[in-house]
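User: Reviewer 2 asked us to show a designed sequence for the structure in our supplementary figure. I'm pasting the structure tokens here. Could you produce the per-position amino acids so we can include them in the response letter?
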């Protein structure tokens, strides 16, 4: 597990950018945290680092925002407003599980029982005026991603 102290939206986006360099095709990333904790901010930094030039908004109302960025196919999910996990079937989740697309899923607990297992779990929480971000690998893919992240951006000593 890695832990980063984030003192601003800028540092959250920077961590997202560093995470972009570790992406592996087909990886699934769960993002957890209270409203406003920085989940979409982290995704914004990731998407911009990959070369997306437009806005990256929270898919709270659309539930999913797709991005084609060069060779990367990203799907940014926000399940906060999902009323039944079985709705994921009708929203096309299965089509995205092709081993190539990267799924970034906010509020994964709302899709319990229907979501594929995560490779990486990211938890953001409030800490004073900043945030604490914990990253936990839950597969060999996730372990490779975290190993690459540590090589490029080691967390500060606690």
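Assistant: Here is a per-position design you can include in the supplement:
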């Amino acid at each position: 597990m890695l832990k980063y102290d984030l003192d601003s939206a800028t540092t959250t986006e920077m961590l997202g950018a560093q995470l972009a360099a570790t992406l592996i095709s087909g990886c699934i990333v769960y993002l957890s945290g209270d409203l406003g904790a920085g989940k979409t901010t982290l995704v914004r930094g990731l998407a911009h680092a990959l070369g997306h030039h437009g806005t990256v908004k929270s898919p709270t109302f659309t539930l999913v925002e797709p991005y084609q960025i060069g060779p990367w196919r990203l799907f940014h999910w926000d399940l906060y407003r999902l009323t039944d996990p079985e709705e994921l079937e009708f929203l096309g989740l299965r089509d995205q599980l092709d081993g190539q697309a990267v799924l970034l899923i906010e509020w994964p607990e709302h899709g319990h029982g229907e979501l594929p297992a995560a490779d990486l779990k990211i938890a953001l929480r409030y800490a004073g005026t900043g945030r604490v971000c914990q990253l936990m690998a839950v597969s060999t893919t996730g372990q490779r991603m975290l190993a690459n992240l540590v090589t490029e951006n080691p967390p500060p000593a606690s």
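For the response letter, you might also mention the following. Residues 140-152 form the longest helix (13 residues). The chain has a mean pLDDT of 91.
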